[in-house]
Structures are given as C-alpha cells and as structure tokens.
Amino acid sequence: MVKDKGTEQLIKDTAKKIFFAEGKLHATTQDIADAAGVNRTLVHYYFRSRKILFEQVAEEALEELRQIMSSIFIGKLSFKEKLKKLISVFIDETSALPYRELFLITETNRHNQGLEDQVHDTHVKPFLADIKEEMDKGNITVMDPRQFMINLFSLMAYPLLASTLSKGFMRISDHEYIQMMKQRKQLIFEMIYPNK
Amino acid sequence: MVKDKGTEQLIKDTAKKIFFAEGKLHATTQDIADAAGVNRTLVHYYFRSRKILFEQVAEEALEELRQIMSSIFIGKLSFKEKLKKLISVFIDETSALPYRELFLITETNRHNQGLEDQVHDTHVKPFLADIKEEMDKGNITVMDPRQFMINLFSLMAYPLLASTLSKGFMRISDHEYIQMMKQRKQLIFEMIYPNK
DNA sequence: TTAATATTTAACATTTTTGTTAAATAAAGA
DNA sequence: TCTTTATTTAACAAAAATGTTAAATATTAA
After folding, report:
1. What is the pLDDT of residues A141-164, one digit of tens each?
2. Domain of A32?
3. DNA-binding region located at which positions (chains A, B) (predicted)?
4. Which of A81, A185, A193, B147 could form a disulfide with A77 if both were Cys (CB 3.0 to 4.6 A apart)?
C-alpha cells in the first residue's frame, strides 16, 4: 500500500477500511498493522494506545456523517432537490462504507456513553423545520418530522448495513444486490415524496 | 439471577442479554460469567470454548429470527392482517433485543462467512409471493417484492438498531424514543400499505 | 448410606493482545 | 559533511483473555 499521506494517516485509513468497509469490528492493532503493511509498534508510536486510535477513528466517523449532512444543506436547492441529493450522496457513501454507523453504535455501547452531539442545532434542527414546512405545504405525508427523518435514514442505511442478512435470506447475489441498491435511490424518493 | 433452567442455560441467556440487549459485542467470557454470577470455568465446562458458545448463540439468534417469521405465516390471516401482526411482533421483539441482528452481522463479517440459510424456501419465498399477489390486486405499490421486503425490515429494524445515533442527533430522550417506537407500528403499516 | 456422577471452584498454563524500551535507519537542516 | 530529528524495527514486558487440570462440593440413584 502506498504511504503518500504518511504512515500515521495510512494506519488510520487502514483502520477505517477494516472497520467501516469490511465490518471487522473486532480487529486488533496487529490486524490493522498487518493490513497497513507496517510494524505494529508504529500504531503506538503515532497513537500511543489502541484506545486513542479508536477514539480518533470514532470522532472522525462522526465528523464524516456531519459532512454528508452539511454538504447537502449548503446551497439554495428546493427541499425536493435537497432530498434527492441527500439520498444519492448518502447511499453512495454508505455503499462504500456500510459499517461506519455500526462502528459508532458498538463503540458507544462498549463504553456506556451516549453521544451529545452538536450536529443537532446546525443540521438536524433546520432539516426538521424544512420537513415540517413541506408537510404544511401538503407535499409530503403529515407526521412527526422526526419520524419522517427516521424513515428516511432507515430506508437508506439498513439495507447496506444488513446486506449479509438480506442477501442470505433472500438469496440475492452480490452483483444483483448492488444493482438493487442503485435502484433504491429512486424508490426511496418516491416512497418519501409521493407524486400525489 | 435465578438458575431455574440450569447453569448452562443461564450462561447462554446471559450471553444473549449482553450481546442482543446491551449491544456489547466485545464482551469476554469473563464479562459473561460475571454477569451470570458464575465462575468463568463453567463457560468452558459447558461450552468447551468461547468459539462454540458464540456459534451456539449465533445459531439460536438465527433460529429466533426464523421463529418470528413462521409465527406470522402460520394461520389463515389476510395479507393485510399478517403484515400488521408481523410489524407488531417484530417491533416488540426487536425493542427487547435490538442488537440481535447486529451480532449476527458482525460475527458473519468476523469469519468471512456468508450465511446459506434454509429460511428462504420455507418463509421468504412464500412471503415474496404474497407480496407479489397483493401488488397484482392493486393493494400496494408495485415494485420488486424484494425491495418491498427490504423497505419493511428497514423501517422496523433500523430505528432500534441505531437508537443511540438517532437519539443523539435528534436529541430525543429514552422515554420519548420508546413512545415513538410504539407509534411506528401504525406509521409503518400506513407507509407500506396505503389506504388508497 | 454410599458409591457414582454431575456440578462448581481454585490454581495454574497458554495464548493473544497490548504496551514499552532501546537501538537501527532514514531524512532534514546547519 | 555532520548533527539533529523523525521514522522504523526488533526485543522485551505486562496485561488480558482463553483454556486446562485437579480437587472440592453437591446431587442422584442403588
């Protein structure tokens, strides 16, 4: 593997790949070092401890999720267009890194710490207000805007998170599943934002 | 804790509680023994190794998911009633054990083994056929029946699986979140099975 | 009761994972 | 160049987790 951005970054990126892309939540520092093709001591040299590496990775995962949200909500698109964009971006991102949320969830459970997050005021609150407004306009089904948001993220995230189970139960091949995930962009939009 | 069903069962039940209810996927045999209030050696006495305990727990998790499916599909209810029942049962079950699927997913990823499951022919295939039929009747929106099924399970499972993230981002209290999950039974049904 | 069996415990051993130290090598600046 | 600093490695140490053994206790059936 190329170490263009330096070894420290390489280690962190490799850890993310193992956790977020491969879903190997039990990976050890040795596993990470091996995958990165470096001596395990470097993990300690750059991060001092496994715990700190994990915390950095978790913090950046959270930051990445924030980025997705903010990338959508800058610019003056209509709600409808924002929604389309969010679905497309989120599904693309999550297809590449399906287990990122899962990592956050399990790390949070591991240390019995809920997450007090600032993303609420900057992104979630305005988004919920937009949803409310769109309901008042009669464009989407009226419900608790938070339920709307939960529905949206459920439909986007779950099939990628649980692809192993879905594919197993429904006997869908890897290739076809990818196709289906692409189709979901349109499908989710139509469910959430019905034409009439 | 009472050991009515014997210590072996107690250990297994405790492991399930830690994995499925608390989402502590990194729990050690010591953690499990402590939570069960027994000597760790008993884990080895009854299960020989940590690996075997995990495999048994995973196999039973899978069996429990099958049970949910079959409990719905015996009896001669209409599709509409089956759907209502499935949503209600699944959400109740998953509220109690939100991380059961997550355990299966991570254990599957850990050992690079997909799951070749017999549940397909007995439950999933007939369910998909029912969905198709209902679409032909014009009762539900026409789409790939597998997408319908994915939507259904996404809407049911994800909010419970990712409750930590949802509550954190949207600033919802534990108590209120439970209320919202109850409301989702009706809400999901209406999304999936629209009145007109 | 007693002998056989099942269950539980403590002590020990091994393996795995994590963390530390010091030395070797490479890179960069004076 | 030489000297300082950064990076990497190997060897070692400590801790954590898993697995094994044998003895103690409880249970059961003859």
Report:
1. 999 999 999 999 999 999 999 999
2. 1-48
3. 28-47
4. A81
